Amino acid sequence: MSVQAETPAGAVRGRRDSFGEFYRAIPYAAAPLGPGRFLPPVPHAGWSGVRDATRPSPTAPQPVRDFGELDMTPYFGPGWVRGEEYLTVDVWTPAADGGKRPVLVFVHGGGFVTGSTRAALYDGRAFARDGVVLVTVNYRLGVPGFLALDGAPANRGLLDVLAALGWVRDTVAVFGGDPDNVTVFGQSAGATLTGALLATPEAEGLFRRAIVQSGSGTGAFTPEQAGRVTAAAASALGAAPTAEAFGEIPDERFLEILPALAGLDLRTETAPDPLAGLSPFSLVLPVQPADGLLGGDVGLLIGTNTEEGNLYGVADPVALGDTLFGAGTARLARAHARISGGRTHVYSFGHRSTALGGRLGAAHTVELPFVFDVAGEPWLHGENGLLGPDPAPEGLAARMHGAWVSFARTGDPGWAPDTVGFFG
């Protein structure tokens, strides 16, 4: 059934089903075009009439990611779906009725180079069913989103997330959400962005709680490391490392040079490569988020999967998982606990997927179907599906999804701050 909501920028037409209402591809910022790809996001000018919000958004330019036998399309989505207006949000809500429901804002992962709100895993119907307004966010990726350039602000993808949170503050009440009860949550690169928000002055007051799923509080590049990536990109493109020069280069070229950026040695005398060579893009910060937290008034739910590194098929997945996620998560959790007065909750996810003959296990991304309560969907199963051929364990999705809903509603996921909530 068709439904309509009146936002400050204009009216949008969505759909209602048995779970609630959903509205797709609502712009939170103007389209980033040409040189504008390297500028801060600017407010959308709005529209007249009723905007169709029943179809998914275009996506940020991105490469195809291949994980061999494992079907990761539910996580990465369709890849690059061309279109100018991709700085958009999707909204799932019980009803756009002016109610004051808890709000969850999700920031997707994908190594700072891939991902979008179109990924099947991020279906928000279960959150709407359970009385929560879910907002999922697209942001700039790769070169436009994160490459350090003279004449451009740093961390433009993070600036996009901040702009989306500003949109939530100003607009979510229209969709039945409470702008004073917002929880931002992210997974992988999205979790690292979420952790960085805790150390970003411009984010203060935009959310009450944060959830960091398999991210890192120590995942940022130093300016020296970022400079090496910039130099390699400029060399591959034959362009000066400036926003002015890069603003004239088409997005296709930025994707073509990604192989030339893979495997760069980013180790320095003072810092290891925080991403262990898996991505040439990250935040660029003078200090790691775990060392720059601004205050403890924001509640934090944070954790990792017990076999994160298994996704990458390397010789020593345990060490890789700790390097990428474990150590940085623990450091951020400890730092937050010191200043938060009992607002830090830690979880561990240990359910082992039976995909790839049981080799995948409790790998990176395996918790997402349980958080979004879609673990029973057939497209996640089979020998090459993310959850493998076996059915999902009964009750696990209800428990994990329920903990996220409870944390968004009250700040209490169901266990004490001084203990670890285990899902397995």
Description:
- It is built from 12 helices and 12 strands.
- It is globular and about 55 Å long.
- Strands 1, 2, 3, 4, 5, 6, 7, 8, 9, 10, 11 and 12 form a 12-stranded mixed beta sheet that branches.
- 26% of the residues lie in helices and 17% in strands.
- It has helices spanning 73-76, 125-129, 142-146, 156-171, 189-197, 223-237, 243-246, 251-256, 258-261, 317-340, 368-371, 396-410; strands at 2-7, 10-16, 21-27, 50-52, 88-93, 101-107, 133-137, 177-187, 209-213, 299-305, 344-349, 420-423.
- The chain has 424 residues and is of the alpha/beta class.
The N- to C-terminal Cα distance equals: 38 Å
Radius of gyration: 20 Å
Give the overall average pLDDT: 97
Reading off the top of the CATH hierarchy, the class is best stated as Alpha Beta
Topology order in helix (H) and strand (E) letters: EEEEHEEHEHHEHEHHHHEHEHHE
Q: Give the name of the CATH superfamily.
A: Alpha/Beta hydrolase fold, catalytic domain
How many β-strand stretches? 12
Organism: Amycolatopsis alba DSM 44262
Pfam families: COesterase
InterPro entries: AB_hydrolase_fold, AChE-related_enzymes, CarbesteraseB, Carboxylesterase_B_AS, Lipase_GDXG_HIS_AS
EC number: 3.1.1.-
Descriptive key words:
Rossmann fold; globular; 424 residues; twelve-stranded mixed β-sheet; 26% helix
Element layout with pairings:
Blueprint: E1 2-7, E2 10-16, E3 21-27, E4 50-52, H1 73-76, E5 88-93, E6 101-107, H2 125-129, E7 133-137, H3 142-146, H4 156-171, E8 177-187, H5 189-197, E9 209-213, H6 223-237, H7 243-246, H8 251-256, H9 258-261, E10 299-305, H10 317-340, E11 344-349, H11 368-371, H12 396-410, E12 420-423
Parallel strand pairs: 2-4, 6-7, 6-8, 8-9, 9-10, 10-11, 11-12
Antiparallel strand pairs: 1-2, 2-3, 3-5, 5-7
